[in-house]
Amino acid sequence: MNIAALPDTQPYRLSPARQEDVAPVATLLQANTASQGGALNGEFPDAKVAQMLLGQGAYAVVARREDQVVGVLFSTTSLAAAPAVIKDMLAAWPAGKQCWIYGPACVSASERGRGLLTLLYAALRQHYGAKPPVLFINATNESSRRAHERLGMHRVADFTSGGQQLQVYTSLA
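RESULT FIELD:
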């Protein structure tokens, strides 16, 4: 993928994830987990993040500002190691099996509201071409729902996984 072909991404530098991104991305994710007062589900030790960034079918874009990792957007096309929540999402909306799996997305608190998610999403759209994404959002996460609706996504199904009420979003018409 040629991220340089994207519109101006200043003040951010976007790049496909690399091995050296594992630790700083894990730190960013962990700071935004529910256990730390954030909205991300689960915990993110380095080994898990390495698999998410670099595993089979994985593709992620990392954003830096002044050499600090300030955002990341994960994706995959492989269901081989998919967690139960992804399987539950695809059971709730089977058309999602034709899509790439979007997420999680994480933007540091200091960068929210500055268009970084839009840039990360544009980079993944460029990578996947016309193939649409599918993702889930916690039904209580209003800010994430609004952010993804601004990206042109819409809700197509609801489901429960791990005791949580979740919603399926996509850009597929």
